[in-house]
Write a structure and sequence with these properties.
The complex is a heterodimer. By secondary structure, chain A is of the alpha+beta class. Helices cover 40% and strands 20% of the residues of chain A. Chain A is globular and about 40 Å long. The two termini of chain A are 16 Å apart. Classes of the chains: A alpha+beta, B mainly alpha. Chain B: InterPro entries: Bet3, NO_sig/Golgi_transp_ligand-bd, TRAPP_component.
Chain lengths: 143, 152
């Protein structure tokens, strides 16, 4: 079976709390507590990386490359972080993150019953996110 | 990754779905009238409009950032210009101008020549002191707060 384009997606609010976690069938599927812990760890690492950076005005880690996976992170100017764990060397993850950010601004933020900074429970977001990830996976397999 | 160039307000406005302007004006007018009926005090209504605007602004800012591709503004002058030229154009379809800068560049006025909210509206004498478009200042306040700019 062909590999999924991405392994998992996390969305963290500005205080470091996990508000969305989706696993796309990777071996490293996590339960709720683990995912919460991992998200706050990443939030702290991201903040520390901004302090450690030798360049002024660094906005934090954007890419983490490991042997068995890549982690791409996007932080909006409002402090919300979107990061995906994917196969090493996957191209165009930044574009996918941008698409996910736009889906978030549409289907989550425009839902008047969604409380800011709280876990995302928006069906429309889930549906459109799956479509976007499928499309990206299709594009990847087609290359 | 090279940053994408910021998109102009016109381009974004053209690319989103539009609603009938009169419906928009009527809806806003209905909200203000209802608030006046419910709250009676003009100051209370001003406060509510600001609060409503604030709630809109905190959500709108991400939409703005996602679509406009702007990077962090260097100073308050740039922030005001971005709000007036890109922000208002993108959401209301009108361009505002920034005037009345004070000596230290911390205070300015954003002027809307053509404000869709107030089409056909005339304030009666009983509503003196009503900030009819207070929702707009709430929106700006909410949006800026989410990117850590605190202002009055």
């Amino acid at each position: 079976m062909a590999a999924a384009a991405i392994c998992s997606l996390f969305i963290i609010n500005k205080s470091g709390g996990l508000i969305y976690y989706k696993d796309y069938g990777s071996a490293g599927r996590m339960d709720t507590n683990d995912s919460l812990r991992v998200a706050s760890l990443w939030h702290s690492m991201h903040a520390i990386s901004q302090q450690l950076s030798p360049t002024v005005g660094c906005s934090g880690i954007e890419l983490l490359e490991a042997d068995s996976f890549d982690l791409h992170c996007f932080q909006s100017l409002t402090g919300t972080k979107f990061f995906v764990v994917c196969e090493p060397g996957m191209p165009h993850m930044d574009a996918l993150l941008k698409v996910i950010y736009e889906l978030y601004t549409d289907y989550v933020l425009k839902n008047p019953f969604y409380e800011m900074e709280m876990p995302i429970r928006c069906e429309l977001f889930d549906v459109n996110l799956s479509q976007a990830v499928q499309k990206d996976r299709g594009a990847f397999l087609g290359r | 990754m090279p940053a994408a160039a910021p998109r102009s307000g016109d381009a974004i406005f053209a690319s989103v779905e539009h609603v009938n302007a009169e419906l928009f004006t009527l809806t806003y007018g209905a909200i203000v009238r209802q608030l006046l009926t419910d709250l009676e005090e003009v100051d209370e209504v001003n406060k509510q409009l600001d609060q409503m605007g604030y709630n809109i602004g905190i959500r709108l800012i991400d939409e703005f950032l996602a679509k406009a591709n702007v990077s962090r503004c260097v100073d308050f002058k740039e922030t005001a210009e971005t709000i007036a030229k890109v922000g208002f154009k993108m959401f209301l379809g009108v361009t505002a101008s920034v005037t009345n800068w004070d000596a230290d560049g911390t205070c300015c006025s954003i002027v809307l020549e053509d404000n869709p909210l107030v089409d056909f509206v005339e304030l009666p004498d009983t509503c003196q002191g009503l900030y009819y478009c207070n929702v707009l200042s709430g929106v700006i306040r909410g949006a800026l707060e989410m990117v850590s700019v605190h202002e009055d």
